[in-house]
Amino acid sequence: MSGWTYVWSNMKHRAFLTVLTVMAVTITVALFSLLLMSKDGVEQGARKGYGPFELVIGADGSESQLVLNTFYRVGAPTGNIPLQLLDEIRSSGEADTAFGMTTGDSHNGFPIVGVDPAYFMTRYEDRTLAAGKLYSGQGEVTVGAAAAKALNLKVGDSFSGAHGLVAHASGGHIDTGHSEDDHDDEEHEETSAHMDHAGDAHESFLYTVVGILPRLNTADDRAIFTTMDYAWAVHATDEAHREITAIMIKPGSLLGAQSLKLEYDALDNVQAVYSSKAVADVLNVMDSGSQLLMIVMLICALLAASTLLLALTSSIQERKRDVGLLRLIGKSRAYILSCLIGEGIALTAAGIVLGLALSRLAAWWLGDFMFTETGVQVQPLQMASNEWQLIAVALLLGLVASVGPAFRVYRTDALTLFRN
Questions:
Q1: What is the pLDDT of residues 42-62, one digit of tens each?
Q2: Which residues does UniProt assign to the signal peptide (predicted)?
Q3: For the whole model, what pTM was predicted?
Q4: How far apart are the C-alpha atoms of 240 and 247, rounded to whole Å?
Q5: What does the DSSP 8-state code read for residue 82?
Q6: 3-state class of 382 per DSSP?
Q7: Where exactly are the structural domains of the chain?
């Protein structure tokens, strides 16, 4: 009888324990794999999230909030800055390219971003659109691939926006997050009147889809783009009081970036932020959270190893007679030891294969939802960073869990095993 035949017969004989053990390993490996793929997705998205725009200028507030809202379409803007700052930066000679951006409105939760169409050529170079063309006139929009899919938008469709980033699908009214008890009757009436006026203004301004962007694998996939002046048109802002949300700058040189940062940091209610530094700060915070999650996952791995150990230990008494018989017919101790350890490794390997397959299936099934809702993009067809180490550690745990029970039988005298 070959070693693998013996191992397979043992596994079939204890089918329930075998399935239970493999399931424990499968779930643990799948969770670890999904965590690693998600972590890779966050890091890759962060690294290419701001493109060539090493500097961003916006209203005073959190640096991370400014960068996250400007490039990753996350959270609310820190405020507005005068439009004239954009003209000053462009005429300074320190910027290779600078683009203003207006945001703050949305359609069914997807942000409407006003920016010069040249932004796409600067960041993504020449790409063919999935459908239609880039916007050029007021009220025209080009929709990101993920947003178009989620909203089922096609070229020629029209819609109205809503103020804020969290909006109900019907009517464009915003959720203020406050109850009526938080205000007296007079303040509540004023707020309601203001919201009704804002809602009417947004509902009366129609956007027409003229194009769908290709898949860009950045947060731009989850946005709706239009001309920068849409915000001034919606809110009826006169030319003297026009403001923008942020200015994205591709510096002409490192010295130019430093000069612009020092100059605009010195202005009241204005901040200049290095994009890479703000992103690094966010990743450091996320690393702390992922480390805590990793500890929980390690506990799960130890539980899976314990399940494997218990499954192998519980079958020792049952195997003693079989092993004694094998020894009496001339099978070596090495053969028996390799079979006993091989069973644990086989169970672990089966769990690893199924776990990796399950994680890929989950990533494929949840991929679009995760990207649309969180901006995290997973790559189910690629091995995640440290996934080979995960496989090696899982096999090592399977080996360690198998050695103890195997040696308990291996070191017992053959006649004793047979009598027992």
A1: 777 666 678 899 999 999 988
A2: none
A3: 0.67
A4: 19
A5: E
A6: coil
A7: 3-45+283-419, 61-268
Angle between helices 275-314 and 15-48 (to 10 degrees): 170
DSSP label at residue 62 = -
E strand or H helix at 229, and its extent?
A: none
Return the structure tokens found at 311. 């499954």
Q: What percent of the chain has pLDDT over 90?
A: 26
Is the torsion defined by CA of 167, 168, 171, 174 positive or negative? negative
222 DSSP assignment: G
Residue 158, pLDDT above cutoff 70: yes
Q: Examine the pLDDT at 299 and tell me if it is beyond 70.
A: yes
Bridge-partner residues for 112, per DSSP?
105, 224
Kind of pairing between the strands at 206-212 and 140-143? parallel
Beta partners for residue 167, in sequence order:
174
Closest CA to 301 of 5, 19, 33: 33
Tokens representing residue 266 in the block = 């010195």
Lowest-pLDDT range of 62-66, 248-252, 339-343, 367-371: 367-371
Cβ contact 56:67 at 8 Å: yes
- The length of the chain is 420
Of 122 and 190, the one with more pLDDT? 122
Question: C-alpha dihedral over 74, 80, 83, 85, to 10 degrees?
Answer: -90
**How far are the Cα atoms of 160, 187, 202, 217 from residue 198, in angstroms, in the given order?**
12, 16, 6, 33
Nearest to 130 by CA among 149, 112, 116, 110: 149
Is residue 42 within 8 Å of residue 376, measured between CB atoms?
Answer: yes
CA-CA distances (angstroms) from residue 355 to 12, 21, 393? 21, 12, 14
Does 48 or 244 have the greater pLDDT score? 244
Residue at token pair 């889809």: 209
Cα(287)–Cα(232) distance, rounded to whole angstroms?
40
Judge whether residue 183 has pLDDT over 50: no
Q: What is the CA radius of gyration of the chain?
A: 30
